[in-house]
Amino acid sequence: MQDILSMLNALHRPRLMMRTARIGAENYRRSSHLPRLLGYGALPGHGAALLRLMEIEAVLEDERQNADAGYSMLRHIDVLIALVGEARVLRATRKGSAATQ
Question: CA-based angle 50:10:12, to the nearest 5?
């Protein structure tokens, strides 16, 4: 099975969408963004949150590619921002734990 970060690296989306997501991720706040996207309650760990966000993003990508009438680019960008933000935190956490070993 692929590592979560490898799965994220395999995602290929339009350049403008990803650029927007990377810019938006600079202001990403887990405590306010995730509940809006994943539902309210206890926040999942970074890995679990990434997996759920990837599932949501896959549905949105299908809607985008099929020109679905219910597709929301704003929601898609919001999910991509959360994906980028969570991935950054997970990478930083992994680097920090690798440095202490």
Answer: 100
Q: How far is CA 12 from CA 27, 45, 49, 80, in A?
A: 23, 24, 20, 12
Q: Are 8 and 83 in contact (CB under 8 A)?
A: yes
Residue 87 neighbours by CB under 8 Å, 6+ apart: 5, 8, 50
| Residue linked to tokens 């969408």 | 17
In order of 24, 52, 75, the CA distances from 21 in angstroms are: 5, 17, 11
Mean pLDDT per 10-residue run, the chain (101 residues)? 69 91 94 90 88 94 94 96 91 68 53
- The pTM of this model reads 0.85
Please give the distance of CA 99 from its chain centroid, rounded to a whole number.
25
